[in-house]
Amino acid sequence: MRQVLVVENYPAICLAIHDALEETGKFRVSTAPTARTALALLALERPDLAIIDAVLPGRFSGIELAGDVIAKDIPVVFITGEPGINRRLDKFKIPHLGKPFHCDDLLRQVSRTLAESARNLQEVRQRLRRLTAEMANERTQLRAVRERSSELVARAKEVSARARAQARRSGELLRKAETGSARPRPRNPRGPAED
């Protein structure tokens, strides 16, 4: 009997996967709702396969967890409902299922991944590294955009403050001009002009 670890934070999905695998009589399934819980389970037992939701709650994503799992020579099948992540997993040819999926599709993917695991583990490691690097690069670019946006917002606030100050000065000068107290006319230093 093969041991499978399912890491999924939605209980209904987790239960469906658990039941679909165990009903075959070929698998014993343990479950974890978070990456942290999964790591604790991995310290106690070594599954033959991990099914991991690519997007997990907490600071440790399913993608990051998979890096640790694959480092232990455990094959991974991702599940995700995120279209962007599905496209990336397709791009890097990493075994995965898009949510929602049919239990028959799950069983086929699990069987295929287990059958090909020895041959594909190294390839999946490399693909996962490229995927992780791509995501890290995008995070870096996003951080740069945020920083530049912050700089532009600060600059816009400065320009706006200067414009308001200039408008206040212009308004004051306009009021003075309208009341006739703009600038007193200079006096003739030689006295009144003689006729």
Helix and strand topology:
Layout lengths: L1 E6 L3 H12 L4 E6 L2 H10 L4 E5 L8 H10 L4 E5 L2 H9 L4 E3 L4 H77 L16
Parallel strand pairs: 1-2, 1-3, 3-4, 4-5
Helix pairs in contact: 1-5, 3-5
Descriptive notes:
There is one protein chain. This protein has a domain at about 1-120: Rossmann fold (3-Layer(aba) Sandwich). Helices cover about 60% and strands about 15% of the residues. The protein has 5 helices and 5 strands; from the N terminus they run βαβαβαβαβα. α1 (about 10-20) runs antiparallel to α5 (about 105-180) and α3 (about 60-70) crosses α5 (about 105-180).
CATH architecture of the domain at 2-120: 3-Layer(aba) Sandwich
CATH superfamily of the domain at 2-120: Response regulator
Q: What's the CATH topology name of the domain at 2-120?
A: Rossmann fold
Ends apart, CA distance between termini? 124 Å
Integer average pLDDT? 85
Strand order of the largest sheet: 2-1-3-4-5
What gross morphology would you assign?
A: rod-shaped
Given the helix and strand composition, which structural class is it? Answer: alpha/beta
| Estimated helix fraction | 55-70%
